[in-house]
């Protein structure tokens, strides 16, 4: 998909990006309408991106990184980033949504509890 320098081809981007946009949106527990409001775009614009009929610009992708809480633009193209939402159970999807909306002190408490339970 990418050349030896780690640069993705246009064809690779057009193939990978739409599904990754949809996967990250679903993992974030957001609808196309909610993402549209956050970006001042219509839900149909989000759908066009997710179906590969149009592509968002780089500034929009950077905003999506913030919205979806992902590290950087590479996550949109890395085929190893983020599991397919279909492989997660509904309970796992809900936990991901709750985790992403939790503040840092709550996350710390949850980590402590989980570590204690794992012992």
* SS element count, helices: 7
Order of helices and strands: HHHHHHH
Poorly predicted residue ranges: none
Radius of gyration of CA atoms, rounded to a whole number: 16 Å
CATH superfamily of the largest domain: lambda repressor-like DNA-binding domains
Helix content: 55-70%
Average pLDDT number:
83
Overall number of domains: 2
Distance between the termini: 42 Å
Number of strands: 0
What does this structure look like?
This protein has helices spanning 10-27, 32-39, 43-51, 58-68, 74-77, 90-101, 104-118. The protein is built from seven helices and no strands. The model has no long low-confidence stretch (mean pLDDT 83). α1 (10-27) crosses α3 and α2 (32-39) packs across α3. Helices cover 65% and strands 0% of the residues. It is globular, with a radius of gyration of 16 Å. The N and C termini lie far apart (42 Å). It has 119 residues and is mainly alpha-helical. The protein has two domains: 1-87, 434 Repressor (Amino-terminal Domain) (Orthogonal Bundle); 88-119.
